[in-house]
Amino acid sequence: MQSTNDLDQTHNPALRSWVESANDAECSFPIQNLPIAVLRRAGSGEQFRAGTAIGDSVLDLSAPCLLPQLSEAGRAAIRLTFASSLNDFMAAGRPAQRALRQDLSRILRHDFAEKDRISEALIAADEVEFNMPARIGDFSDFYCSIHHATNVGKLFRPENPILPNYRWLPVGYQGRTSSILLSGQSVARPCGQILSAESTNPIYAPCRRLDYEAELGVFVGSGNALGRPVPIDQVDDHLFGVCLLNDWSARDVQSWEYQPLGPFLAKSFATSISPWIVSFDALEPYRRPYRRPAEDPAPLPHLTSASDESRGAIDIKVSVHLLSAAMAARGLAPARLSLSSYADAYWTLSQVVAHQTSNGCNLQPGDLIGTGTISGPSRDSRGCLLELSEGGQSPVSLPSGETRVFLEDGDTVILSACCEADGRARIGFGECRVTIRKPE
Fold this sequence. Notes:
Shape: globular
Radius of gyration: 22 Å
Number of domains: 2
């Protein structure tokens, strides 16, 4: 069987599509990408089903005209996408995912003889509405960026920002799935217990230090049996794809409640994800060697792999933009607050999954794993306002003349991401766009 880390014809940067918009160098969805989402025509009342982004269009994977053009393996795979969630397709594993990718790449190429028939399956991207891509059974969020951990640690423990366990294991917590929302759904400012510096007793009030966290979300494909850890060199076979993830945080609620058991109400009120899932096959050209400082302890054997060292980092660049209500009223463009890369992460995705399953924990198709805030070494690569404003001490300036230390009602936070490299197609992830509204 083909290795999961091989490049094939679908990665060829010279490939062009008969969907002309996909050939634009700045396009997020070229033929080398082919992300998948669950969608339907907006306002139609149709059943939700899977679609693939290509240029400024969406290929409806349920369209009857596609089946005759696919290989036997491709037909078996595409039938798994006809449902209103991708769980069955995820469960089929990387072979099914790769078979469909190869067939879609072939029939979308500029010289495909039956392109006129296939064009019947296209829908304009601005004419669709999205649904949650999967039934998410479990959500785990990690702390993969040592830059984020250091910046936050300095605010609370200036003399000891990184706790001893951080360099030995990927720190994480179990999140809540019922409050995972899709991009476009607004988030209400949460209420909670808050202890101010001037008081000895907490109050119950709307959060005053509401923050975003720029992350990536990873969907599990084929799971593992309870009691059977996933070896680090086999993790790729159990992962489906990557989306954008914003793990909203009520920082003042969090600072009061988190000891001794960690995040709870400060995190469970909302987590937002983008609709498009980019496959790991599409990300293959952007893998990089994974390195940690020579003076740091070597990972324990279950978190060590020569393959992961050679390709465990992925250069996914994540941007955060903010649009205040005042900016929107004046017609101003969203302001970029940060640009960071997952290539700077301290823990790789393979290490995260190997660690999470090392005790025998069973992952299931559709489970979601968050990377934690993605921050880099520079100030403009800090992935949350807690870092950017240094705990509220250094306001962030906006083009409207406003400043922010934390989010205000009416603010819209926009996450986007892409992979770019010389001689390679640009792989985009779309957007995760959410507006903050007043408390319920």
